[in-house]
Amino acid sequence: MEIPGWFLESEVREGFYITAEMKRFWASTLRILEEIREICGRHNITWWMDWGALLATVRHGGFIPWDDDIDISMLRADYHRFLDAAAKELSPGYQICNIQTMPEWDDYISRIDTTFETNENEALFARQYGSPYMTGVDVHPMDYYSPKLDQAFTDIVKPVTVLASLLDPYGKYEDAVQYHDFINAIEKAAGLRFNREKPLAQQLRKYCEQIMSCVKKKDATGAVLMGAHLVNDGIQAILPVSWYEEFIEMPYEFMTVPVPLHYDAMLRGKFGNYMTPIRNSGMHDYPLYDKQVEYVREHFASVTLPAYRYG
Q1: What backbone torsions phi and psi does residue 18 show, to the nearest 5 degrees?
Q2: Residues 12 and 83 grouped into a single domain
Q3: Angle 79-289-62 (CA atoms, 0-180°, nearest 5)?
Q4: What does the alpha-carbon distance between residue 218 and residue 201 come to, in Å, rounded to a whole number?
Q5: pLDDT mean over 198-207
Q6: Do 101 and 64 belong to one domain?
Q7: pTM beyond 0.85
Q8: Which of 21-25, 93-97, 267-271, 297-301 has the lowest mean pLDDT?
């Protein structure tokens, strides 16, 4: 992807100073987004900007000046098709992080990430526009919703997710002796048997994901990001299915991205008067790569870390 030279330079946006280091991090993130867009285009997969990235697109026409990540969403069927295609087609230096690929992954979303090994390859490092940090794009699965799921969330998904969080990510059934009664009860109720030779927490999360995605479109009363619905105790907005059937392209930095046609109603429901900026960094610290600085300095002596400051 061609990045305009001006984009990599430091600048002030809306009174906020953005360093050249951050601009390169942004550029690396956009390169991943472009990779996702290309895969989705080849396979006719629908995706859209979501969460803070949707707000950023509509309100700023690009990154929120004091933010540094991108979230996109797909309906569950497209999500699985994308992951299947991405496993075969992602360029070297990128990885898929989710409960299917990593036993330690504890979130019900996927992330397309760069790897630290990128710094060992000059060509890959250049593809990140000189940014030495791992970066990625979060990919959220959107599921169909029915009220019948509420009881399943209370009785199964929440307690099983809590149990998974208490286990050693790589531990097996034999390592969770104190929870055997609960695990056996899950197996009996679900009519299944977890593999005793594979990480148990990962299997528990996969089971929960199956429950989240069990509602068919014909039975749906809405659509929801189930992972967020779980974390937020059911307060995640359940929106009309039809809102995820029409999309338009809007400018984002030097490219365009898809957003739902009903973006205004979505954003008002989530943020209220969303066109009035409130300066914060969302769900994480800013900059996102702050905790990586020491690792890069220690492991990649040839990488120059430019100084950054806040404004």
Answers
A1: -110, 120
A2: yes
A3: 60
A4: 32
A5: 98
A6: yes
A7: yes
A8: 297-301
From residue 283, give the alpha-carbon distance in Å to each of 9, 71, 154, 273, 280.
26, 12, 25, 19, 9
CA 35 from chain centre, in angstroms, equals 15
Q: Backbone phi, then psi, for 17, in 5-degree steps? A: -80, 125
**Residues 293, 251 share a domain:** yes
Q: Are residues 208 and 270 in the same domain?
A: no
**Backbone phi, psi, residue 196, to 5°:** -70, -15
pLDDT at 309: 36
Split into its structural domains, the chain has a count of 2
Burial classification of residue 59, based on how many CB atoms lie within 10 Å of its CB (0-12 exposed, 13-18 middle, 19 or more buried): middle
Q: In this structure, what CATH number is given to the domain that contains residue 117?
A: 3.30.460
User: Within this chain, do residues 38 and 11 fall inside the same structural domain, yes or no?
Assistant: yes
What pLDDT shows up at residue 282?
A: 52
Which DSSP state fits 140? E
Per-residue pLDDT, averaged over 62-66, amounts to 94
* SS3 category, 102: coil
Residues 88 and 190 grouped into a single domain: no
Same domain, 42 and 175: no
Answer whether residue 232 shows pLDDT above 50.
yes
Give the integer Cα–Cα distance in Å for 266 and 287: 27
Unique residue bearing structure tokens 């472009």: 34
